[in-house]
Amino acid sequence: MNRPLLLIMATGLALLAACASGTPTEAPPATQAPTVPTQEAAVSGRCGDPSKLSQELYFYTWVEYIDPAIEEEFEAECGVKVIEDNFDSNETLLAKLQAGGANYDVIVPSDYMVQIMIDEGMLEALDPAIITNLGGFGDKFTHQYFDPEQKYTVPYFFGTSGFAVDTNVVADPVDSWAMLFEPSPEVCGKISMLDDERETFGAALMYLGYSLNDTDPAHLEEAKELLIKQAECVLTYDSQTNDDLIIQGETVIGHMWTGDAILSGSPDVGGKEGVIYLIPQEGCTIWQDNLAVPVGASNKYTAMVFINYLSDPEIAARNAEYVGYGSPNTAAYDFIDPDVLANEGIYPTAETFERLQWIEDVGDALETYDLKWTEFKAAIGQ
Q: Of 289, 339, 330, whose CA–CA distance to 135 is shortest?
């Protein structure tokens, strides 16, 4: 939802614990020759070498995952029009690139998908001479398992995958996955779960006491059976409008990503008073989305300039406050509202970080995940 986070803290959003789609534009053609930027642009120092910039840049990202004003400013400053297309899952992103039907310049894969794409030779190595803002990122967000040399990606946003609760209906919520997997009568039928294979299986696995990245077929079968049983009380599996559902009162508990949950409880920006965000004591996913350039991109130089532009501390701060997610760019913190930085739902404490888990590439076991997910969906009639 396009609702700036700058307004959030005025709502007095409650937190009981500390713990990205729309109508896409037409995909770019498979080949796209670089073009010269428009002469009307007032090229700034953030635009690299103007003579090397293309006129257009194709950006493939999650829906509502950038402040549109920043895209407009990049065009005004650098003479490059950003043409945005959207995907609803990492698997959709991967499939689109593997199909070879489009030629994007900048993409936004999550942590585990970065690892897969690097292994498949799908990402370009980035040029640190162009991306000069990389030094502003915190140690927790760089040189991670998925890009240990920080060679292919630049951190964009991070968040968690806990759940939101409407305390107008659920008076005494607890920070446990039991709220979703052992629902009370007033909750049954009013739960939403993410329509995401790894996230939803991950929630079930953590509730059962297993790792988010468990590869034991018996444990995955156990998680599948738990999800089938839970489905009797689940209204929908939705990663796109689950925030709207809890605002409108159709659900009272929603498994969702940080930004959606936080904004859902912010009345001043269209949310609902009394909706809070919880990180389960059993743990939940921590994820990081990253900016990358796919192999074959026509406008590689412009792509890296755009990535560096988004990594400018002031730009990064505005972007983070707009979308409602945490910025891994610690140099941007000087430009972020202190009240936002103090919101532990967005910027978890060190103690909370200890019980968060990254989704990792599970190798050949992904076939088992795919099979169990398909069996689960078939069992519930989807």
A: 330
Residue 308 neighbours by CB distance under 10 Å: 23
Secondary structure of residue 237 in the 3-state scheme: strand
Which residue has 């799908």 as its token pair? 122
Which candidate, 24, 105, 27, places its Cα nearest to that of 310? 105
Task: Dump pLDDT digits (tens) for 39-49.
Answer: 445 567 899 99
Please say whether the beta carbons of 321 and 61 come within 8 A.
Answer: no
Helix (H) / strand (E) containing 320: helix 313-323
Rounded to an integer, what distance in angstroms lies between the CA atom of residue 126 and that of residue 182? 47
For residue 296, with 0-12 CB atoms within 10 Å meaning exposed, 13-18 middle and 19 or more buried, which class applies? middle
What b/e sequence results for 257-281 when a residue is b if at least 16 CB atoms lie within 10 Å of its CB, and e otherwise? bbbbbbbbbbbebebbeebbbbbbe
pLDDT digits (tens, 9 = 90+) for 275-308: 999 999 999 999 999 999 999 999 999 999 999 9
Residues in the chain: 382
Please give the domain boundaries of the chain with CATH numbers for all domains. Answer: 20-159+288-347 (3.40.190.10), 160-286+351-379 (3.40.190.10)
Residue ranges of the chain whose pLDDT lies below 70: 1-43, 101
SS3 label, residue 195: coil
Residues 6+ apart with CB under 8 A from 110: 90, 287, 288, 289, 290, 359
d(CA 43, CA 168): 51
> CB 180: neighbour CB atoms within 10 A?
23
Nearest by Cα to 113 from 283, 259, 255, 292: 292
